[in-house]
Amino acid sequence: MAPIAIAPFQTTSELTHSGIKHTITKTAPSIITNGNSTIINELDASKLVFTRNLSPRAVPEPDSPEVWTQSVCTDHMLTCQWTSTSGWGVPHLQPYGPLQLMPTASVLHYATECFEGLKLYRGHDLKLRLFRPNCNTRRMLNSATRIALPAFDPDELQNLIEALVAVEGEKWLPKSRPGTFLYLRPTMIATAAALGVQKPKEALLYIIACCFPSFDTPSGTAGPGGETVQQSSKARPGLKLLASKEDTVRAWPGGFGYAKVGANYGPSLIAQGEAKARGFDQVLWLLGKNCEVTEAGASNFFVVWRTSGGKLQLVTAPLDDKVILDGVTRRSVLQLARERLGGDLEIVERKYTMSDVEVAAAEGRLLEAFAAGTAFFIAPVHSIHFRGEDLEIPMSEGSTGKYTAILKTYLMNIMYGREKDHQWSVVVDEKQLDA
């Protein structure tokens, strides 16, 4: 098993940091010692047991109304139980179906739940690929240990993800549909049937694969009945964002905004739903009296502007205050921009405010903006509603900005295999199941 360091941004306090280290030592000591554990059973993908689904369902058409419900999952899912007394059990690749929980389960009362989001791609070369899954599995370790769930070797979690998609890929991403994807959701929940406010003593890891529509196209939303709202030739391009007010906060410095836990998302849904009811695509989350720009919905947010001195910059909020998620797409955008566009763009991670954005727009220095995340991918932003005014964002390429389009193309070429043998692209050998 490969060692993994505790992420620096986990050290929110001495007490929390110490607790995280203790959790790792007790539940997955091998990721600290870089050796096999004889103390307790750790997560082990080599023990996987497969039970085939004998009642498979039909695969829906891409972007069909059924897909837009975001509830159609593949035939199988992966599960693995953990207890504080025996550690991780045998992983099971089994038919997709409901989970059994007691009403007193910790997850139902104390939000002891974390998850990840990544995609499986059917490349244009007809191969199956995952995009930087090691980033997702390591981030999930950080999220799990932040809320007292058990630790695991991230490489073993990646092996389990690959086992699931190797079985599901051939049917659910057929070779007749290159350029399509499935959304993957690894999740961990505390399942112990006790109401006491305490560290969980039982947990369930599960991984599902879901049919998802493409959200990165302009005006990509679903109608009230789940039907797709397609963009017409007269539809506005890009996302329309509603900036949050000072009395609405998604995450705060020193908190757990960096962790992908359910407690970060549920409280934001009321504002998100109201924004959509008013005709906006996402909330642009601001922080504090200075209106610091943080995230757009559940995605990271970027602007491209010229400084007052004429320097061209790609700017996004920093990770230092633990307010925003260390997005895999965010990380990839920054790295590709530094490697390939560094001669044109200065890449900046710093705090900036809506006032900075307004001034840049008024002076003609604001060139483009986009949201970046797994679900929405790279989505250009058309406008931001802030303090009663609509701030229009230039779209130099018609439906997107120049650098937004360039970065999106870079990423798509890696994800779908047009850029051969890139280190971020993990090819999965699919398994054929007998009819």
TrEMBL record:
Entry annotated with the keyword Amino-acid biosynthesis: yes
Annotated Gene Ontology cellular component terms: mitochondrion
GO terms (BP aspect): L-leucine biosynthetic process; L-valine biosynthetic process
Catalytic activity reported: L-valine + 2-oxoglutarate = 3-methyl-2-oxobutanoate + L-glutamate; L-isoleucine + 2-oxoglutarate = (S)-3-methyl-2-oxopentanoate + L-glutamate; L-leucine + 2-oxoglutarate = 4-methyl-2-oxopentanoate + L-glutamate
Source organism of the structure: Imshaugia aleurites
Essential cofactor(s): pyridoxal 5'-phosphate
Modified residues (N6-(pyridoxal phosphate)lysine): 260
UniProt family annotation: Belongs to the class-IV pyridoxal-phosphate-dependent aminotransferase family.
Enzyme class of the recorded protein, top EC level: transferase
GO molecular function annotations of the record: branched-chain-amino-acid transaminase activity
Name used for this protein in its record: Branched-chain-amino-acid aminotransferase
Source taxon at top rank: Eukaryota
The protein's Enzyme Commission number: 2.6.1.42
Pfam families reported for this sequence: Aminotran_4
Keywords recorded for this protein, A-Z: Amino-acid biosynthesis, Aminotransferase, Branched-chain amino acid biosynthesis, Pyridoxal phosphate, Transferase
